[in-house]
């Protein structure tokens, strides 16, 4: 058996400088041996792990497969296995079936085998670490994956924008962000880009002293340390870059003013929800061109239809290689209002309808006035299922039919899911 040459035990160059803090990721380790679990847990005393939420579980690969049949996977999975090398790929294939997009996997094995190593890396596993080892090997591997110079930014960006002011994009953005934070149990950042009138602070009953305006006016001075100070906590797993919501100054931005902020937040938080105001200007257009997913929130009337159509056409032509924008119809069924039928609306603007939310003045009014999410005001309400469906779709947890059909059969395609960013 050929030996795997590794740098285990050595510190990565960035890590040894002590400067590379890991982002706010979730890590779950499934161990077979209690010594391994202890070793994984001991990584928490490393300061690079300060913002990482790590849990260890028993049961190794089998335990992980059982767990993730029904639960979302974290940003990083560490799996210990004592299986013989030839059985590991098949067992991992079963696990891959339940892995959410963006989840990375580190396998902790007891066999030093370069053939197995190469095979695992080729099929999407991020790292194979041979046990026994030291805690620092784990931390260095995690830093390499999530905080090194060549690590892909971890943050998935999702923009919500209304087809017409007041259609409810902020409300849908905040409630969908809440649904994602609760269901995925991952850190979510809401960026309220509506400087003068933004409602994210109000909707979460927060009045933080700093927020997005400080970030954008800091320009080049903004770094992750400063960003951390500007972000406030709004609820469990929900972080906020709140808008000032005042008219003390005017907010005229250059086209690229938000670019650096978005790039920076992507290195520190796995899910970023941008609450974009209903404006058409350089920085809105530029922001829309860079996001992973865009959700257009519209009411089912003619003005919304006209605007949504312009937005969809423009966004599609501006970013032909990115996912098409998605549609949420909101405030549907407003008493006495003549409305355009949902299917007709979606097909007229050639956009996939991912949610339809009924008008409910009492429910939404109570939530807004209390500074609460709908799920807090009325946890059993069916509308929460719609928010969950939107969040599942934009976070990539549920995939469109066509894609679902295309994936599956064969090790490589299944394992590719592990690689999805
Ligand atoms: N489905 C709904 N039923 C009733 N009221 C709603 C609904 N969705 C949003 N609202 C209310 O509509 C108003 C405008 O919503 P908001 O999210 O601020 O819109 P936008 O961000 O598109 O301007 C808010 O008062 C909000 O509480
Ligand atoms: Mg708004």
Estimated share of beta-strand residues: 15-25%
**Poorly predicted runs of 5 or more residues:** 4-18, 404-421
Shape: globular
- Separation of termini? 33 Å
The total count of helices amounts to 19
Oligomer: single chain
Largest sheet: 8 strands, mixed
Task: Tell me roughly what share of residues is in helical segments.
Answer: 40-55%
| Averaged pLDDT | 91
The CATH class of the largest domain is Alpha Beta
Number of domains: 2
* Number of strand elements: 13
User: What's the architecture of the largest domain, going by CATH?
Assistant: 3-Layer(aba) Sandwich
Report a brief summary of the structure:
By secondary structure, this protein is an alpha/beta fold. It contains 19 helices and 13 strands.
Give a structural overview.
It is a single chain. The chain has 421 residues and is α/β, with parallel strands linked by helices. 40% of the residues lie in helices and 18% in strands. It has 19 helices and 13 strands. The strands form two sheets. An eight-stranded mixed sheet has the order 8-9-7-10-6-11-12-13, sandwiched between helices. Mean pLDDT is 91; it is low at 4-18 and 404-421. Residues 169-170, 194, 277 line the site of magnesium ion (MG).
